[in-house]
Design a protein that fits this description.
5 strands, 3-stranded antiparallel sheet, single chain, alpha+beta
Length: about 90
Amino acid sequence: MSFTFDELVEDEIEVTRDHIERGSAGSTTACPVALALADHFGAHRPGAVGVGITTAMIEEGSFNLPAEVSNWIEAFDNANEVAPFKFRLMQP
């Protein structure tokens, strides 16, 4: 997988109902946001994508997550009801 920085920050990432249903709370590699990034960028081998509360780690580097994504992750991790959404990565 190889993308330019512009491609990474311009692409809109979609977290679907399927990502939410398959996601694991508290997991950096299997939360719905990480699953959506892996699907979007075709990075399905272990360790290719990781997500923290404020940062997404992809082979090309680390990128900031918008505040609304961080809030969404916290809600999911706390077993609150969440809905599908879309977001863009931010410049580190």
